Amino acid sequence: MVELGDREFRQVQAFIHEAAGISLSANKKALVTGRLERRLRERRLTSYAQYLALLRAPQEAAELQQAIDLLTTNETYFFREPRHFELLRALALDAGRAGRPLRVWSAACSSGEEPYSIAMVLADAQGELGWELLASDISTRMLARARAGHYPHTRTEGIPPAYRQRFCLRGTGPQAGTLLVQRALRERVRFAQENLVRALPGLGTFDVIFLRNVMIYFDSDTKREVVARLVTALNRGGHLLIGHSESLTGLHDGLRALAPSVYQRL
137 catalytic, yes or no? Predict the structure, then answer.
């Protein structure tokens, strides 16, 4: 095992904070070692200092992305926090009655369970009205999984039975024990790599933005910067949904709290 010294750990902390806005606490040294040590072995490096120097090399963009992928945490499942999806359905139905398609952004989509949950609700509530869904993540590895839309059954238990029957295909033969989101629904989701701690490209504005269980990894300054960016991408009257363990209190005066984890742009 290659030892991760305190100085090198501080350098890793600085690296991932600069690259992705993530604040690694002092007790995460074992996590960093567990996730990066294999890369050191594969690159035949004998210290984390060498690996960090490698990440700064212009020709090592792929390794830089892999390090970011390895150091970001991805935890998600279908229809997580059901009340958010009840709200989304109500908003979609209201907009649909007015003939207005919703535009939604899953701003840290991980392996895709969240955007496909959103897509099922929008397809059910708005049909072919022309709704749009952007799903983004900083991790290319997670985006590849999300685009595939293929999951073990154990990860799909949260999908309501009617949605599972309508929007998913059950694997058979070699694919037994898995579920595939139907192609027609997968093709309605636009996936893109976006880094929330960098200036956003021209994404347009959205009626609903999901940014759930992400800001727990940011320090106060980074939270404030990220929320400011997202508010500019939110239509007036639009909704920003965050994790139930998170709060936007004091971070932006252009939002009002409607319920725990639910905010609306003024």
Answer: yes
Residues 106 and 235 in one domain: yes
| Structure tokens belonging to residue 196 | 């929330």
Angle, CA 88 vertex, CA 87 and CA 90 arms, to 5°: 65
Q: Active-site residue 94, yes or no?
A: no
Q: Each residue of 6-42: pLDDT tens digit?
A: 899 999 999 899 988 888 888 888 989 989 999 999 9
What is the number of domains present in the chain?
Answer: 2
pLDDT < 50 regions, the chain: none
> What does the alpha-carbon distance between residue 94 and residue 61 come to, in Å, rounded to a whole number?
45
Q: What's the CATH code of the domain at 94?
A: 3.40.50.150
| Catalytic annotation, pick one of 35, 100, 170, 188 | 35
Select which of 103, 137, 186, 207 is catalytic.
Answer: 137
Query: Do 47 and 132 fall into the same domain?
Result: no
Q: Residues 44, 87: one domain?
A: no
Q: Which two tokens stand for residue 140?
A: 């290319």
